[in-house]
Write a structure and sequence with these properties.
Layout (H helix, E strand, L loop, with lengths): L14 E9 L3 E10 L2 E11 L14 H18 L7 E5 L1 H5 L3 H12 L4 E2 L2 H15 L5 E7 L4 E7 L2 E8 L3 H8 L7 H23 L5 E4 L2 H12 L6 E2 H13 L19 H15 L3 E4 L4 H9 L8 H12 L4 H19 L9 H11 L11 H9 L9 H12 L15 H20 L12 E5 L2 E5 L9 H16 L3 E4 L1
Helix pairs in contact: 1-3, 4-10, 5-9, 6-9, 7-9, 8-9, 12-13, 12-16, 13-15, 13-16, 14-15, 15-16, 16-17
């Protein structure tokens, strides 16, 4: 779970603590945030694998072991909650506590331990809160399909910006499917087929409701999608989740024969037991809902609960807020950042007519990279492009998906000095082409803004043809500006070294 977004309106108190506790079917989570000087910062997180859903018997009764695991976990949470005002704490239970016939037994003792009321929310409310958490932390363009695979339920939501339009909660999850289809510890083709088929049966009544929506992006909230993204990144793949990757991971699981022997590079030990079952559900979702690619959101249920308590939360552009906050935090020259951004966008608008930018927010990457291209100066000058990429690999950027942030990092790495083509290799070929164009644009925008003053440049035409970029200046302008002329000559050489061609007329 990433850090939460900044807010623009200060609270009546200078500093307050808030906590959200999610009693999930697989894990119990607690997140604690500090609201100070108009910003929200995570200051504590606790996650414990409780596997509550595994304790449900055929009569929907939680067995004693699962009850004890849950209560023991809450004893850890309780002490930390003592420091937080009661009104600033929200505790919710989800699918397993909805299903358990003896839920009152669990709740009676759990509330005594926590000293807080536990709200067992229905599936639709869980879906709504998940969507709000995703929307607050992952700014979206147009309609978005949001999916969260939990331990005993899966929530599916279509929404636009902060408004969920259509939502549902289905009784299928990675823990319950593990107990049903992979209980013998074996990972077989037949087990996968049975799990996928059952997921499709459960999806059938609602499938058309979601396929009929014209949604522009699909976002996965934590759990299985997060685990798959971690696997891809570890294996050197910077890409969205795609169906062919899921099929490949399915075969890797089958090749390992049994769960105890499951060994996939990038898969955490904590996720191993429930990975095949979660993967089966995700494959069914991709196939039935016609999903081509999925990106990871910045938040989910816990973020939705936190922001639901912040009544004076401003629903502004989360990306703009994030960039403004980072400019201040890393002492970036905001005037120059905006100067480079404006020039890069001016060039981009000409290029946009010539280049295919469909299905990817190239403009968001260009704006982010332009505004943050000097973030590495926070460390030192000589290698500040390298330092900048390092910083952007480790700081949260609320409003940006993981893929967008990875692209911004790559463009910042290449905004000056030698061009690192190896940094493009983790991306698919089509994405490499887009990033190459953005790198050329940011390099030119930085170069042409070298004097760090406004209104010095004439109208400039830019054109791309295959691997060649052409810049056209007014007649005689370059000769009368030897500094920029010399910088462009060096840039021609830098691009030539990697097989690119820059022409200045």
């Amino acid at each position: 779970m990433n850090n939460l977004q900044p807010i623009t309106q200060e609270f009546s108190q200078p500093e307050q603590l808030y906590a959200a506790v999610d009693l999930g079917s697989n894990s119990f989570h607690m997140v604690i945030v500090r609201v100070s000087a108009g910003s929200v910062h995570i200051i504590g997180k606790i996650k414990q694998k409780v596997r509550l859903a595994a304790g449900l018997d055929e009569h929907m009764q939680l067995d004693q072991d699962s009850l004890e695991r849950g209560w023991h976990c809450l004893e850890t949470f309780a002490e930390r909650l003592l420091d937080i005002p009661v009104a600033n704490v929200k505790v919710v239970g989800t699918a397993t506590l909805r299903l358990a016939k003896n839920v009152d037994v669990f709740l009676h003792k759990a509330e005594q331990i926590l000293r807080h009321k536990i709200h067992v929310i229905d599936g639709n409310e869980e879906a709504r809160q998940i969507y709000l958490g995703v929307a607050y932390t992952s700014a979206n363009q147009g309609n978005s399909l949001v999916i969260d695979i939990g331990g005993a339920s899966t929530e599916i939501i279509v929404g636009n910006d902060m408004t969920p339009i259509h939502l549902t909660s289905l009784n299928m999850g990675c823990v319950t499917f593990k107990e049903r289809f992979f209980a013998d510890n074996l990972i077989t083709e037949d087990a996968f087929a049975a799990a996928i088929a059952q997921a499709k049966v459960l999806l059938a009544p609602v499938k058309n409701d979601f396929v009929s929506f014209d949604w522009q992006q699909c976002l996965g909230a934590s759990g299985t999608p997060q685990a798959i993204t971690e696997i891809l990144v570890t294996q050197g793949i910077s890409d969205s989740i795609r169906l062919d990757y899921l099929y490949n991971l399915k075969q890797q699981c089958i090749d390992c024969i049994q769960i105890d022997l499951l060994d996939i590079v990038g898969l955490s030990e904590a996720r191993r037991a429930i990975f095949p079952s979660g993967l089966a559900i995700l494959i069914a979702l991709f196939e039935e809902l016609k999903i081509t690619d999925m990106q990871i959101s910045g938040g989910a249920l816990r973020e939705g609960l936190i922001y639901g308590m912040l009544d004076n939360m401003q629903q502004n552009d989360r990306r703009a807020q994030t960039l403004e906050q980072m400019l201040g935090h890393f002492h970036i020259d905001a005037d120059h950042a905006k100067r480079v951004k404006n020039l890069a966008l001016t060039l981009f608008k000409q290029v946009q007519k010539q280049q295919n930018t469909d299905k990817f927010d190239c403009q968001a990457v260009l704006i982010g990279a332009a505004m943050l291209h000097e973030i590495g100066l926070h460390i030192e000058y000589r290698q500040h492009h390298v330092h900048g990429a390092y910083i952007l690999s480790h700081v949260p950027m609320i409003g940006y998906t993981q893929q967008l942030q990875s692209c911004i990092k790559t463009v910042v790495l290449n905004h000056r000095s030698d061009i690192n083509l190896a940094s493009l290799k983790p991306f698919q070929a089509e994405m490499q082409d887009k990033l190459s164009v953005l790198i050329k644009l940011i390099r030119l925008a930085c170069l042409l803004s070298i004097r760090r003053k406004d209104k010095l440049l004439p109208p400039i035409d830019i054109a791309f043809e295959d691997n060649k970029c052409s810049l056209t200046f007014p007649k005689g302008w370059l000769k009368s500006h030897p500094l920029i002329d010399a910088e462009l000559a060096n840039e021609k050489w830098q691009q030539h070294k990697v097989g690119w061609k820059l022409e200045c007329l």
